[in-house]
């Protein structure tokens, strides 16, 4: 399942951030690694809250403070567990699942895919910032691109995603996904 893969990518990347890596710059130009983690965790909690009616993130995911109350691994695990548990309550046949992104309802397949896309792309952001290998596989990237193409465009107007970057000769599936999300696959600090 795509959400499980995306969560494992985020989990692995978080686990491998070096102790001095939490303040490093990321492809998300205004945020460091800690802030991207806060954003990713907040988004996962947001999906869970919309599905279950439970609490929203304590901090605005779009204005992360850069200060964690708990260890990074705990922050990530708590958020991913809330998200996975919430999605486990939704029927795969559901046509209108409440989600925290416009239009605020999606089919199960699109909604869980959007949630996975969020976790996976932020796993890539953190990996890239901390010198880790990309956690995105070609198969995962192909599946996530299909999801992204169905829901990203309206979010660009809110500044959630940057403009699409032109494809380059030699782009693989991962690079195509990243460029669609407005990220340079060859980003460096």
From TrEMBL:
This is TIGR03086 family metal-binding protein. It holds the Pfam family MDMPI_N. Residues 3-127 form the Mycothiol-dependent maleylpyruvate isomerase metal-binding domain. InterPro entries: CHP03086, DinB/YfiT-like, Maleyloyr_isom, MDMPI_metal-binding.
């Amino acid at each position: 399942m795509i959400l499980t893969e995306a969560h494992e990518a985020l989990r692995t990347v978080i686990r491998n951030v070096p102790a001095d890596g939490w303040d490093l710059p990321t492809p998300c130009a205004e945020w460091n690694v800690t802030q991207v983690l806060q954003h990713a965790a907040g988004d996962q909690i947001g999906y869970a809250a919309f599905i279950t009616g439970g609490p929203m993130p304590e901090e605005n995911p779009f204005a992360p403070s850069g200060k964690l109350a708990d260890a990074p691994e705990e922050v990530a695990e708590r958020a991913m567990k809330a998200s996975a548990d919430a999605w486990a309550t939704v029927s795969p046949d559901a046509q209108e699942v409440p989600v925290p992104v416009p239009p605020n309802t999606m089919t199960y397949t699109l909604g869980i895919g959007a949630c996975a896309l969020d976790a996976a792309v932020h796993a890539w952001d953190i990996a890239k910032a901390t010198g880790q290998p990309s956690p995105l596989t070609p198969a995962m990237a192909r599946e996530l691109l299909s999801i992204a193409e169905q829901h990203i465009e309206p979010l660009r107007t809110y500044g959630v995603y940057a403009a699409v970057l032109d494809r380059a000769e030699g782009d693989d599936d991962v690079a195509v996904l990243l460029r669609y999300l407005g990220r340079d696959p060859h980003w460096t600090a």
